[in-house]
Please model this.
Amino acid sequence: MSEALINKYFRPGRLPHIWCPGCGNGIITGAIVKAIDKQGLAKDDVAIISGIGCSSRASGYLDFNTANTLHGRALPIASGLKMGNTKLHVIVVTGDGDASAIGGNHLIHAARRNLDLTVVMYNNSIYGMTGGQYSPMTPHGAKATTAPYGNVERAFDIPELVKASGATFVGRGTTFHTLQLIDLIAQGIAHKGFSFIEVVSACPISFGRQNKMGGPAKMLEWQRDHGVMKAAWDKMTAEQRAGKFPIGVLYEDNETQEYTEAYDELIKRAQGGK
Model:
């Protein structure tokens, strides 16, 4: 990232960050900043809301309207903020545990409402900050401190979950495919409605070591070799798709009305006595 972008969008004196060497959180946070810059948004018109976890430290580094909230509760706070000031571009940064475990109920209902929020979920497949416990996004069979013999539970297909719940923009990127990730987040911010972007990331310390995935470079190579662009994915057979996952814009609906617009119409009808 250029020095100009750092000086413009990061709080003075907060860097260097505290993330572990090889962690993908810095790449994702940088992609969010570049996406905001690409959209030409004023800093005062952007709010970054986070929960608790490694990824949620991002809000403390960024020089926007920010709030580091409670574990799993970033979405209700972001929802209230958006309802109170509909002109704000509200971005939620959250981890896989924060979003899909303790925050899972908030996630599906925010998607159901189609409130104009952009959620970027940093998915490193583990609870990295609290000791390497498995999360709802830990792959079946993968090891964690709370699953030393392998995880017996199946992971969520989180894009399909939020799509089924009512999200109108769903995407997935990786920390290897950085340029695509910037464009994907920019599209999510520009979309009018609930946008959800899963970013497949690496936790070399808590996940990589336990699962013998090698160092940070090897984990990035894994993302390169397993992430498939959506256009190519659509042409693959079931056998070719085995062990891989699609990346890019996975679903977009520009017809469903956004929540605050529907709510404003309801207020007008109530005030008119109809």
User: Anything to note?
Assistant: The longest strand covers residues 245-252.
